[in-house]
Each structure stands twice: as C-alpha cells, then as structure tokens.
Amino acid sequence: MADPHHLPNIFSSIVSTACRVVPALSHVDPSKILVCVRKLPPTRLGETLGLREAKERRGHDPIFSKMTVGGREILYVITFNVSLVSAAAPARQALETVMHELWHIAEECDGTIRPARHGKAFNATVAALHDAYQSVGGRPVPTFEPHTRVRLRHLRGKGRPGILSVRRDRSLAAAVPKAWKQTWTEDDVRERTTTLSRLLPMTFLYVCPLGHEIVRFRKLSKASSCAVCSPTFDRRFLLSFAKEKTTT
Ligand SMILES: [Zn+2]
Ligand SMILES: [Zn+2]
User: Fold this and answer.
1) 55-94, pLDDT tens digit by residue?
2) Whose atoms come closest to the Cα of 236: which ligand?
3) What are the CA-CA distances from residue 169 to residues 11, 58, 136, 175 (Å)?
C-alpha cells in the first residue's frame, strides 16, 4: 500500500514557505509552531493557540504552558481541519485558512496573539496574504480524493488544545480550557493514519423551488425556507431534501 499523505508535514511546509515569501508574515518564525491536522467541527476550519499571555497580570503567570517538541520550543499550536484537503472543498479555503491562522500570531512572535478581531478588516488582510503568496508562485494546499490514506496529528488527552478567543468581552486566559496542562513534550503528540472519507462530515443538500442549493451539516428538524429567496420564513420557498453525501 502506498505511504499515507502526511498532512501535518504538508501544512508545515506551506506555513514555512508563506513565512519566507510573504513580507507581511516575515515576523513569524515557523520553528515556533506545532502544526496539527485533525477533524474539527465542520464550521471550524482552523484554530490557533498562543502559549503566552500578552500582559503579565499581578499574581498571574503569563505562561500558559511550556512545550518542547523535538528539541524545539513551541510557542503556538495551529490545528487545521482535515476537511480542508478534501477535493470538494472550495478553492481558496485551505490556503486562506493557513493565512488566517498565521495572522493571529503577534508581531513579536512571542507566544501571544495579535490584538485584532475577526471581521471585514481581518478577512481583507487574509485575502491579501493569500494573493501575495500566490503571486510569488507559492504552491497551493493539495487536495485528495475520499479514499486517500492520510496521516493526522493531534495532542494527547482532551485532544483539543483549546480555542483561541479574540472576542473583546473575553480574555484569552478564559479561552484556555482547564484541561490544558503546564508541560508538553513529544510524548503528548499523537499521529495516526486513516482514510480521508472517514473524517469528512456528512452533508445534506437541500433545494428551494427556485433551485438554490443549500448545504447543511445536519438534517433539518423542521420546515425551513430559502434564505436567499426570503430573509424570513416563507412557505412559498420551502427547502426540500435533495441528497446526502460524505464529502464537503
Ligand atoms: Zn481566527
Ligand atoms: Zn431560493
């Protein structure tokens, strides 16, 4: 059997290239990043955790965790959703997610998170980073057919290294789960091989009477109408179930 595609290495090499060729990312040191690839909830394409807090608060340790993997001191853990490499994923999605997560890294690249909120300006920067990378011939994230064997990487234990919160009403400390422990080593890094199709979320395709196609990650539990045709519920534009598929 052919060797599985090592997705963490594929994403790591794209991260390194992006940091080298995109001037706006030159502050990012890729050796400080541990890249994981695993199944995340369908709407979450990636997540970035910084292991240091920006400001030292009184009586509060500015260090969340220490991580050393392969002799490298890790300051950031970036996890990508495995669905990004599906052949059915939208064209710019994977590369834009790489740029999005890298843009969360603070200018100091010291384990803290850039104080920027999600929104229009953030997305515009991400699109510009994506285009800058492509304009110098940066290679795209490869996509694979559902039967492909792939290698994944995640952290042991609870598995999710925590969710970055850049919402203003919540401090980053609050976003770090209690299960997050103090010291991490390569013993906590787990890899496994599986078939891509086993990880892709089930999707449900619905159509409205005018032919708009709506993809949902769950079966609709009650009658719903097409949001394109009418912003509020309208019986004339009821969605009907078209098909179920395993790739998204
Ligand atoms: Zn984000
Ligand atoms: Zn419609």
Assistant:
1) 665 666 666 778 999 999 999 999 999 999 998 888 899 9
2) 2
3) 32, 20, 39, 11
Q: Ligand 2 mean position to 124 CA, how many Å?
A: 28
pLDDT tens across 175-215, in order?
555 555 678 889 889 999 999 988 887 778 899 999 998 88
> What does the alpha-carbon distance between residue 84 and residue 40 come to, in Å, rounded to a whole number?
10
Domain boundaries, the chain: 5-198, 203-245
If you measure from the C-alpha of residue 236 to the centroid of ligand 2, how many angstroms do you get, rounded to a whole number? 10
Give residue 4's Cα distance to chain centre.
21
Rounded distance from Cα 216 to ligand 1 centre (Å): 22
Residue type, 222: K
Dihedral of CA atoms 208, 212, 214, 220 in degrees, nearest 10, equals 0
**Stretch (H or E) spanning 174:** helix 172-175
21 membership: H or E segment, kind and range? helix 7-21
3-state secondary structure of 16: helix
Whether the per-residue pLDDT at 13 is higher than 90: the answer is: yes
Neighbours of ion ligand 2 (CB under 5 A): 208, 210, 212, 226, 228-229
Question: For 141-158, b where at least 16 C-beta lie within 10 A, e where not — what string?
Answer: beebebebebbbbbbeee
- Per-residue burial over 170-202, b = 16 or more CB atoms within 10 Å of its CB, e = otherwise: eebeebbeeebeeebeeeebeeeeeebeebbbe
